Amino acid sequence: MRVAVIGGGPSGLVTLKYLKTAHEFFPGTELIEAKLFEAENSVGGTFKYRAYEGAELVSSRQLTSFSDFRCSSDTPDFLTAEEYTRYLEDYCKEFDLLRFIHLKTSVTKVEHGEKSGNVVHYLTHGQETQYHCDAVAICSGLHVQPNIPDIDGLENVPMVIHSSDFKEKKQFGVGKDVLIVGSGETGMDLAYMAVTSDTKSVTLSHRDGFHCGLKRAPDPIVFGQKPALRKKPNVPYDVGASSLFDTAYVHPVLRDSPLAWGYWDKFAKWTAWVPTGTSPGYDQWIGGVSPDRYHASRIFFNKSTHAIPYISAPYHPTPSLINKIRASIIDAPIVDTKGCHIDLAPWPQAVDSSGIVHFTETDRPEAQRMKQVICKPDMIIFASGYTQSFPFLTASYPQFGEANIRNIWKERDESVAFIGFVRPSFGAIPPLSELQAQLWILNLLQRLPAPLLKEDHYRLHAHPRARIQYGIDHESYAYQLALDMGSAPSFSQMLDRGLKMTLCWALSANVNPKFRMVGPWKWEGAEGVMMGEVWETVTRRRGPWGHFTMSVLPILYFGILSAFFYVVFGVWEIALFVWKCMMASADY
Q: Which UniProt keywords apply (predicted)?
């Protein structure tokens, strides 16, 4: 079998690695020939070519690292983009991938062969060549174009760039007025960089609000006592929750019901209000998501938090009695902004001939405030994301939006996969890409343990007009892929490995090493990672957002509800069976 992999970011690299090592897991399988095509001169994708000064991953290294290539224990919880790029380069060396990677090679066309298979046309060193293959993996990082909204009058602003062209703080200049359009994590990062640079003013524009969620569980002030200094801070949130009964052993009726999202929606709002007194986000007093969208099943959590104190500064209210009582019990440390702030504004509607920006009319408090502010930027940075397009695919191929089998391939067209084209509401794409690659390769080799059932419980409930329709819940999606492959360990399999391993498996998040202990991609090193690195994520949970809210409460909530549904439906099935037997006896 011959397979082409397009894109040299984490999704492409992990797909190449599993293609090249598949024969080691499946005796009798021939060595797969695979080639990876990357247009740039090195691997890394977005993390190398769209990163900016000081960019830091918002997902933890415990979650983001691939299952069988872990970071050392002294590595910080959150890597910079530069550090993660080095990690990917080391990953290539560890698994001897570089000799299968064609750099400075652009794919120009992918078409079906005359009789069968696919033909990949690629340009390298000015010469076009063809590669005939059986399957194609299209991975994140190629032909991703900056999304520039259509706003009248942009030519009246001295400098307009997309965030992909922003690299260093010095690009802000000195004494400039800066407008950043887009309130995602990149927009927040750039706003913080701008307000802490030698700028005159910083304005951040948003479409319909955001929810600021922390990257790690907080350590608030409790009864006036600051948290004790410890060697390591509190656990990252993306590996802080227990999977037992949340995804493992949850009854299908509960899993598919609003109750499944209900706990985490309340958790997101209450863990913001309890330490800070405001529920739109952690210490976020303005810019909340509209009520019709504000639910954990619909939003993407914004984990870039440094700009929030500067955004909230003009909107801190006089504390109410209930907030004074709350703060006397538990409170978040106050960030000193040194008198600086970031103006929050609605979405730009137009720029007039004098260079003044006019914003969309809304009834939000920030819109009313901005009516008193003249926003005449020297520089606009669009942190408005990217659009995916694949002009090299001929019309006979599906697009990634048509990939209806686990968001990976289209039914009856499994020879073409889209790896990495999901967006978790709170999680990371690279580990999901690893699971996607595993599932797709199993399907190519015709080694799936059972036909895949159509499921959509892991999808976010996106508004029909939302730009991103491929949002998913990381934990649910990861566990579903593991179930599909037979890689999700059972409770009895964990009990056979001892009490500590059972507790680690039950109380840990759905990190990928958990799904390498059994199943077709079983790896002997998985148990060591679980008992070491993953166990540490369990033992590091502390404070009000430690084991109580991240383990005990969800296990009780989901466990009791699942038990109820199992009993009710079990009794119903027994009653139905008895009734059928009685009817059959009567007929006889």
A: FAD, Flavoprotein, Membrane, Monooxygenase, NADP, Oxidoreductase, Transmembrane, Transmembrane helix
